[in-house]
Specification:
By secondary structure, the protein is α/β, with parallel strands linked by helices. The protein folds into 2 domains: 35 residues, no CATH class; 191 residues, Rossmann fold (3-Layer(aba) Sandwich), CATH 3.40.50.150. It is 33% helix and 20% strand. The protein has a 7-stranded mixed sheet, sandwiched between helices. α4 links the parallel β1 and β2. It is globular, with a radius of gyration of 19 Å. The protein starts with a helix and ends with a helix. The relative contact order is 0.16.
Length: 233
């Protein structure tokens, strides 16, 4: 038997985070069906606060995150080494005019693919193969004031590859911020780490920061907040 208070907690995960749909349907989407990256929810909410209309994004590894960034950024370039995954997402990407998908074999071609287009990017996402090597090329291609995202960074506890990747990013003078928590499609937690330039300067997409997060009470009217508090006593 679950308490009413606990059931309200579950309702927030079901309705605001849409995690039940995400897990059952195996899709990275929000409650409105819009694409989400496969990062932790705290990282997604933090990143979603900023204005990317003049930013260029590069991803090692494509997917729902590519569509998430394409809705926000000036341009998105994603490199993929899996031909089956490539074929799947080529169909999904047809409507995103600012999104370019590249194919590269795993290995040197893959992690050097970032040099094939423009040389500098404002956001670089490391979420595919060869993460240590991708980190080494990413620091060479990051615009001043930008950020690098390393997903699944908690694997540093068991993987030399992640140890090397994080060592490279920190040695480049980037500031590491770790976002722990649940993520779309998973029933367990993980970590997404952001590595920010010390002069990180992205403008907020809103008048204030932070904005009200998912499940937050302060987006509700005062009367509704009072009713919620009463029901939770």
């Amino acid at each position: 038997m679950f308490s009413d208070k606990f059931l309200k907690f579950i309702e927030i995960w079901q309705n605001d985070f849409a995690i039940e749909r995400s897990i059952d349907e195996n899709v990275c989407v929000d409650k409105d069906g819009k694409p989400l990256p496969w990062y932790t929810y705290p990282a997604i909410e933090y990143l979603a606060q900023f204005d990317y209309h003049d930013k260029n994004v590069f991803e090692f590894g494509c997917g729902y995150s590519s569509l998430f960034w394409a809705e926000r950024a000036e341009s998105v370039t994603s490199v993929e080494d899996n031909p089956n995954w490539l074929e799947k997402w080529q169909k999904e990407f047809l409507t995103a005019q600012n999104l370019k998908l590249m194919f590269a074999e795993e290995g040197k071609t893959y992690y050097n693919a970032i040099f094939d287009e423009q040389h500098k990017y404002d956001v670089i996402v490391i979420d595919g193969k060869c993460r240590a090597e991708c980190a080494a090329t990413a620091v060479q291609c990051l615009n001043d004031g930008g950020l690098i995202i390393l997903d699944d960074s908690d694997r540093v506890n068991t993987s030399v590859e992640y140890v090397e990747a994080i060592h490279t990013l920190k040695n480049a003078g980037l500031l590491q911020i770790d976002f722990y928590g649940f993520c779309p499609m998973n029933n367990y937690t993980k970590t997404t780490s952001l590595f920010l330039c010390r002069n990180f300067n992205f403008a907020s997409a809103h008048e204030v920061q932070p904005i009200n997060g998912l499940g937050n009470l302060w987006h509700r009217q005062r009367k509704d907040r009072k009713e919620f508090y009463k029901s939770n006593k």
